[in-house]
Amino acid sequence: MVDIENAYKQCEKVIKHHSKTFYKAFSLLPEKKKKAVWAVYAFCRIVDDIVDEDSSPHKELALFEEDFHLFLNGTIPQGEYHFMWLALHDVSIHYNLQKDAFLDMITGQRMDLVKTRYNTTDEVLTYSYHVASSVGLMLLPILAPQKIEALREGAISLGLGMQLTNILRDIGDDLGRNRIYLPKELMDYYQYSEEDLRSGLVNSSFVKMWEHLANEAELYYQKALETMNEYPLSSRTPVKASALLYGEILTKIRKKQYKVFNEKQYVSNEEKTIILSKISG
Q1: Assessment of whether the complete model's pTM goes beyond 0.90
Q2: How is the chain split into domains, by residue range?
Q3: Options 3.40.50.300, 1.10.10.10, 1.10.600.10, 2.60.40.420; which CATH number does 4-278 get?
């Protein structure tokens, strides 16, 4: 039987393995909040992996959603993900978790099972809200319980910026899963075809298209940073760090001449440390 401390440790392992950027940023939180963030992240990572890695994702996602509804009704589901449900239950005792944000995440992951192309930027932003902005909304009751409404738009903007960054970084990986998140209207506008994309062509059209979305992402980061002072001091630095560290991925891709087809660009530990040292509460 998993005890609560081991449940949190397993959640921490999930985030430490899958997102070193998030782990670095949110390790700055006080212990209680930090562990709560680990549990929420584990929920998000597990549902994402079901869609991307499971051999029968439709069935497993449906079962996962059933377990979530059991969880909402006070039952801690057993099985492979028991540790996450146990930790999340403990979080729910201390924080007023927003169930709609969790359901939005599940909805967003389901989109990946039925949709592999996006025609418009608005469609991409709707998807991004569900798979990324929902995370910010999940975390607000933990990070800023007295300021949820004041920070809602900023949290949504931060999620949009991060997901657009993911899309721009993971173009090659996504192609390997037959997914293209770059909106067709943008590809058409810059005269860059799906054939060009599949051949890994980095030309002036690709760079202009990439920069178009990157500039949008940076505007969302900027909007998120405008409300950063509304966070309690203990949460402000980690959230600001996550925005700046994630935004730096775009800078790294530019420095690497837009190599996003066969390489995955990361911000190094040394670069992260330099950025964190410059952040003041």
Answers
A1: yes
A2: 4-278
A3: 1.10.600.10
